[in-house]
Amino acid sequence: MDVLSSGHEQVVFCSDAESGLRAIIAIHSTALGPALGGTRFYPYPTEDAAVADALRLSRAMSYKNSLAGLDLGGGKAVIIGDPHTQKTEALLRAYGRFVEALGGRYLTACDVGTYNADLDVVGRETRYAHGRSEAYGGCGDSSVLTAYGVFQGMRAAAQHLWGAPTLDGRTVAVAGVGKVGSWLVGHLVDDGADVVVTDVDGAAVERLQTRYPQVKAVPDTATLVRTPHDVYAPCALGGALDDETVEALPAQVVCGGANNQLATPEAADRLRARGILYAPDYLVNAGGVIQVEDERHGFSFARAQSKASGIFDVALRVFRAADEEGVSPAVAADRLAEERMRSVGRLATIRLPR
């Protein structure tokens, strides 16, 4: 993706030789408010790959924040490097100063390779670091409400398809039982679903089955997608819904926590052609960003959870719009997000007295 033709408002390259910081901050849109999105710390093979990821992820955040009803635009940052060996206090604080220099146009939070404790360090240099630990007045682990939101989206899919907002008696296949996946499994078990899982980390599966002995496990994703189930929940890496997976799925619903699940835009149409209801990932996994956003107002878990419960109603609206317009839910969700960015975003042109 070319930077100048990507439609982004601003892309900032950050470098500090002393600490080893090499980062890119991409601001896609501030139509609805400051751009909120996490910081990904990842060993990208090339700078071009890092730029492409920042552009793609920041655009997705604009749509996620819009559809979640937040007064926020979309942004994302990537730090190039191995977080296990290159993450230092100096590097994180240098990065924080670059965030601060943007004057609040970009609000950062956790993502792959960064954690609450890292944002505590970044926050020593900027007012615009969110998703901090509870000890610093932050919202803590945002995977809690991410999983809750995915569960609400799944309940909405059940309501739309089967006439009742429950997974009771249904089989749900969960690919990836890390933070989000493991919380999701808890909701599903409590709701009466039969759950089958897989993860590349065998220890994660063992921990999960210790907590929920009734959960079944299979060795890999290829086996999982061919195991009989009603709902498929991708909760690991992006691009999970490629042509082969879409053709193999026995599920009637796809609803998971992973970002960028569609390997290509056409995958949404293939799912629709097969009669599989797709719950757009950026819609159902918005619980985490809702949790982080609430930190700006003095964090209240109960208030954030109440907001995340709204994912159920938005998902129903998307599913109905898709049926009425004869398009995939992915297209319907994009249209709703874009309409809010236009209609609410234009209000900034109405000048207010100072």
What does this structure look like?
- The protein is of the alpha/beta class and 354 residues long.
- The protein has two domains: 10-61 and 74-136, Leucine Dehydrogenase, chain A, domain 1 (Rossmann fold, 3-Layer(aba) Sandwich); 143-339, 3-Layer(aba) Sandwich (Rossmann fold), CATH 3.40.50.720.
- Helix content is 45%, strand content 16%.
- The strands form two sheets. It has a six-stranded parallel beta sheet, sandwiched between helices.
- α9 links the parallel β9 and β10.
- α5 (143-162) crosses α6.
- The radius of gyration is 20 Å and the shape is globular.
- The N and C termini lie far apart (40 Å).
- The model has no long low-confidence stretch (mean pLDDT 95).
- Keywords: NAD, Oxidoreductase.
- Its EC number is 1.4.1.-.
- It comes from Blastococcus deserti.
What's the structural domain tally? 2
CATH topology of the largest domain: Rossmann fold
Q: By CATH's scheme, which homologous superfamily of the largest domain applies?
A: NAD(P)-binding Rossmann-like Domain
Give the amount of beta strand, in percent: 15-25%
Cα-atom radius of gyration: 20 Å
SSE order, as H and E?
A: EEEHEHHEHHEHEHEHEHEHEHHHHH
- Biggest sheet descriptor: 6 strands, parallel
Strand order of the largest sheet: 8-7-6-9-10-11
Give the distance, in angstroms, between the N- and C-terminal Cα atoms.
40 Å
Total DSSP helices: 15
**Shape, per Cα inertia axes:** globular
Structural class: alpha/beta
Average pLDDT taken over every residue:
95
Number of strands: 11
Binned, the helix content reads 40-55%
Level-1 CATH class name of the largest domain:
Alpha Beta
Unreliable spans are none
Family: Belongs to the Glu/Leu/Phe/Val dehydrogenases family.
Domain Glutamate/phenylalanine/leucine/valine/L-tryptophan dehydrogenase C-terminal: 140-349
Keywords: NAD, Oxidoreductase
EC number: 1.4.1.-
